[in-house]
Amino acid sequence: MRFKFGLETLLKYRKSIEDQYRMELASLREKQLLEEEKMFDIRETQRILQGNLKDKNRVSLSYLEELSRQSIIQRKILNDLDQEITKKRDKLIDASKSRRIIEKLREKKLDEYKHDLNIKENKAIDELVTNRFLRKDNSE
Predict the structure, then answer these.
(1) What pLDDT score does 3 carry?
(2) 50: Cβ–Cβ under 8 A, 6 or more apart, which residues?
(3) Could you give the CA distance from residue 56 to residue 49 in angstroms, rounded to a whole number?
(4) Minimal CB count within 10 Å: which of 19, 55, 77, 91?
(5) Least confident of 26-30, 63-67, 109-113
(6) For residues 109 and 103, what is the distance between their CA atoms, to the nearest angstrom?
(7) How many percent of the chain have pLDDT more than 70?
(8) Is 103 within 8 Å of 15 (Cβ atoms)?
(9) DSSP per-residue letters across 32-64
(10) Cα dihedral angle (33, 37, 40, 42), rounded to 10 degrees?
(11) What is the rounded distance in angstroms from the CA atom of residue 89 to the CA atom of residue 109?
(12) Which long-range CB contacts under 8 A does 52-58 form with residues at least 24 apart?
């Protein structure tokens, strides 16, 4: 007799959901790194321009203003990504918990199955020994 866990399909489903959230979270983190690099580039350009502006002409000032505007937009993008990452991480944690619950239930059912199997084997052995003893006793 082989062990069969009735909720195996549910366990597989929950694992797939967890894997999906894990991949989505990794994708969001990659996107976050790219956006942080953009922010770094904008700030670095601002810093260089501000350091090199001795004769603050109108073109450079308007470019600095544009960089400031881009910096604000980039900060908003990063904040939105942080919120999205937090939500996705929470979903991943919930999915992991759900999967672990089913896995623990599976382990418990497997332990019960092994225990029942062990009891049946012991009964069979006891019955065999008893039958042999009775046969020996009858043949004497």
Answers:
(1) 84
(2) 64
(3) 10
(4) 55
(5) 63-67
(6) 10
(7) 91
(8) no
(9) HHHHHHHHHHHHHHHHHHHHH-SS--HHHHHHH
(10) -130
(11) 30
(12) none
CA separation for the pair 128, 136 (Å, rounded): 12
Residues 6+ apart with CB under 8 A from 1: 117
Backbone angles phi, psi at 105, to 5 degrees: -60, -40
Q: Which residue has the tokens 């580039």?
A: 41
Residue type, 19: D
Give 2's DSSP letter: -
At 87, which amino acid appears? Answer: K
User: pTM higher than 0.85 for the full model?
Assistant: no
Cβ atoms within 10 A of the Cβ of 20, count? 13
User: Which structure tokens are listed for 4?
Assistant: 């069969």
